[in-house]
Specification:
Number of helices: 10
CATH topology of the largest domain: Creatine Amidinohydrolase
Radius of gyration: 23 Å
CATH superfamily of the largest domain: Creatinase/methionine aminopeptidase superfamily
Largest sheet: 6 strands, mixed
Strand order of the largest sheet: 4-3-2-1-5-6
CATH class of the largest domain: Alpha Beta
Number of domains: 2
Distance between the termini: 50 Å
Shape: elongated
Strand content: 15-25%
Oligomer: single chain
């Protein structure tokens, strides 16, 4: 955190997820100023009472007219006395960038440092993620018995949404429910396609609890799967097991990805693995760093990432198995408890 304030720098925060990270209060209609001496949260006076109850010590609430939050912060004396201003280069809007630059002070993109800060989860954050994954595991167990001939992808997606909401959660991302040939699409959208005997099934969903996400994918089959599907399922499970045993903090994202990718390569199946091995998650479902062939960043201890190898045969079927794990110095702690053997309904 101290590195954010090097050489008298202050940092302006406008991104909704980062506002929540630093304040603990979910309100996208706000702005924050981070300084070495203390932080300032600026929003409409109508939310002051609720926001103040959530704000940690060291954060002062600043009243402002609606829509003038950034301007109000830029006029604070603590900013006027600063030597430079850090901004979120990966999300800042041009109009806001121009306002920040209009102060006449040097500006610096600090998004990389902000992302690195969020990559390492605190014990409090881990508790929220564990809770969210627990809900996801429970909902999976409730939904599997609903997979019967004639049910549609949309109906199963709706059942997932309802079950998560009943447990006080919301969707971490758009739920993927795919039957038959639709499972070959890694990001399939639920449709009116109904489940038929012999169909493969992909369920990819997650709950968001207390502002933190979970994520899980399981592949199943209604009735006896084809020999090819069963064999490929074994290859996906093997790749994931190798990755789960091999990854640890201190490795680059590319090195982690290569564990699973090389497993597919040995079987001549690498061309059918069309995405990266995984991604960080927390407040957002996709955070940095990631597990991909191009990721040079080192995964820090305390980061939470998905491990989700998959194989996709266009127009026929797809298989993906996804767990979320906490990277540690001596390995990875798997937070996902749902079974991973090939479930035949």
């Amino acid at each position: 955190m101290e590195s954010l304030f090097e050489k008298g720098r202050v940092v302006v925060i406008l991104d909704p997820d980062r506002l929540f990270y630093f304040s603990g209060y979910r309100n996208p209609d706000a702005a924050m100023l981070l300084t070495e001496a203390g932080n300032f949260y600026c929003s409409d006076a109508r939310v002051k009472e609720e926001a103040s109850a959530c704000l940690p010590d060291g954060i002062a609430f600043v009243d402002a007219d609606r829509g003038n939050y950034l301007e109000t912060l830029l006029n604070l004396s603590v900013l006027q006395k600063s030597s430079r201003i850090g901004y979120e280069g990966d999300t800042v809007k041009m109009r806001d960038y121009l306002k920040i630059g209009g102060t006449g002070k040097p500006t610096e993109d600090v998004s990389v440092a902000l992302n690195a800060l969020r990559a390492v989860k605190s014990k409090r954050e881990l508790r929220f993620i564990v809770k969210a994954q627990g809900v996801t595991d429970t909902v999976f167990g409730e939904v599997v018995p609903l997979l019967r001939e004639g049910v549609s992808e949309r109906e199963i997606a709706a059942a997932i949404h309802t079950a998560i909401a009943q447990r006080g959660g919301e969707l971490a991302f758009d739920t993927i429910v795919a039957f038959g040939e639709n499972t070959a699409k890694p990001h399939a959208h639920p449709s009116d396609r109904v489940l038929r005997y012999g169909d493969p099934v992909t369920l990819d969903f997650g709950a968001k609890i207390d502002g933190y996400c979970s994520d899980m994918t399981r592949s199943l089959c209604l009735g006896t799967p084809s020999a090819r599907y069963a064999a490929w399922y074994g290859y996906v499970l093997q790749a994931q097991e190798l990755a789960l045993k091999g990854v640890r903090a201190g490795m680059t994202g590319a090195a982690c990805d290569e564990i699973a990718r090389s497993s597919f390569r040995k079987e001549g199946l690498e061309p059918y693995f069309t995405h990266s091995l995984g991604h960080s998650l927390g407040i957002a479902i996709h955070e940095s760093p990631v597990l991909s062939p191009r990721e040079t960043k080192v995964i820090p201890a305390g980061a939470v990432l998905s491990v989700e190898p998959g194989l996709y045969l266009p127009g026929v079927f797809g298989i993906r198995i996804e767990d979320i794990v906490v990277f540690e110095n001596n390995g990875a702690d798997n937070l996902t408890k749902s079974p991973k053997h090939l479930i035949i309904l």
